[in-house]
Design brief:
Blueprint: H1 15-35, H2 46-51, H3 111-123, E1 125-126, E2 134-135, H4 140-149, H5 155-159, E3 164-172, E4 178-185, H6 189-200, E5 206-207, E6 209-211, E7 214-226
Parallel strand pairs: 1-7
Antiparallel strand pairs: 2-5, 3-4, 3-7, 6-7
Length: 229
Amino acid sequence: MEPKKSKKADLEKKKVLFLEIGFILALGLVLLAFEWGTKTKEVKGFSSQEKAEVAQESVPVTRQQQKKQPPPPPPPQTTEVINIVDNDVTIDDELDIQTSEADQDTKVDYDAFGQEEEEEEEEQVFVVVEDMPKFKGKSINAFRNFVQRNIEYPPIAMENGIQGTVFMRFVVDTDGGISNVTVLRGPDPSLNDEAIRAVKNAPSDWEPGKQRGKPVRVSCTMPIIFKLE
């Protein structure tokens, strides 16, 4: 059996009406929400706080006092000592000037100056001169070769395997002799001593160097090689 409904209880006919009423209520709530607002309370006394004067603390200005430097001490006073002389004492103010007159017969001794210059030239040691010293009529290389052939290798240096070059310096005097034999640089003291011995024991067969035709002292340097075979 199908259920029977009364026409008054049938809500399908009023569906559209209810829908329109719902739209109207929703629209009214939306408009009410837009118009709804909050009122801000006025704060009393704010303007008075803005206008209140800010109390500024006054800071006293202080200036650093400069220390006054004491004045410099006065210069010492010099007292002049005055010697009181009796009136009876005579003072000799006159200057005794001795004059020497020279005539044609006056002789001047100038030989001493020339001798001093010659002695200075003899004592001076040259490095380069017009005529260099020669050993047995040859150059310094002949003397180096002679010394090189006559050196004796020190046993201590030989045992330790020490070898190298010794640079020598000596002076050829005006009489053809050798003096001031020194070592400029060497690899070992034993080799240095042997080089000095060989140079000092070499014969003095030197022709002295000459400057302006006069024999002068000349400083010479040469190497001596020590090499183990």
